[in-house]
Amino acid sequence: MRFVRDNGLALFFLFIFLCSAIAESVVGRDVFNQEQLMHGDEAISYGRYLVSSHFGEAMLENWQSEWLQMFLFGLATVWLVQRGSAESKQPGEEGLQSDEKQRIGGRAPEDAPRWAKVRGWRTAVYENSFLIVMLVIFLGSWLAQSATAWTEFNDDQVQHGGSAVSWLTYLGEADFWETTMQNWQSEFLALGLMTVLTIYLRQRGSPESKPVGAPHSETGSSV
Amino acid sequence: MTAGDAIPLTLFGLIVALTALGGIFGPPVILVPAGGLAVLWVVMLVGHSRDQR
User: Fold this and answer.
1) What's the CA gap between B46 and B53, in Å, rounded?
2) Structural domain count of chain A
3) pLDDT digits over B5-43, tens only?
4) Predicted structure pTM score
5) Which of residues 1-53 of B touch A (CB under 8 A)?
6) Which H or E element spans position B13?
């Protein structure tokens, strides 16, 4: 029980992710099969749909933008600040900050992660590990999106009497960039709005908010 | 500039470059978001050079 309480936030999001992914796959198959029947083709099984490019594209085009969003927010908040926002460092603290503040090398406490203490390439990698992992997952998702969307695009082309294109040609197609930008713009808008709205709005008890009575000019969350 | 400083510049540079390639070989309008992303890259470069002074 203690494990569940200590990990409630991660477990809750894992749970609703699985619930939503299952729901998406079920209704996605319905949409796919409706189109199949309209074109005079056969409906496919649920298992076949799970490995189809239709399901893959629908899922991955959203995934890639989420990882990019986290990558960009992690990076932008190093170098840019927003006075009054719960999501920002104090104005004047832009940059990578001192070893003392970041508690690395000789400034690392006894129980610090080992790669934060050792210096050299391991500290260089560890101090950027969040960005590295977000980038790898983003690029992987984006690559997989391009592959699944390419298959979908070619199916559509062939069905409508057009000719199939190579993967590299598809990367220059408006179709690929439309689905990419459609997801990117919404993520960037959400990040910008969250940054600004946390200046003026509060949620009592949330670390994503300033304390309810904090002045609008106070920067950073201190709950 | 240390390796730790160069890693985020390089990683983000890769995203900017891939987006710019989309604008060069695909729809030219993609150069607009590529340019927007590049603004942060410039901010990072300026910040690094300021830190080193």
Assistant:
1) 11
2) 1
3) 899 999 999 999 999 999 999 999 999 999 999 999 999
4) 0.92
5) 2-5, 7-8, 11-12, 14-15, 22, 25-27, 30, 33, 40, 43-44, 47, 50-51
6) helix B3-25
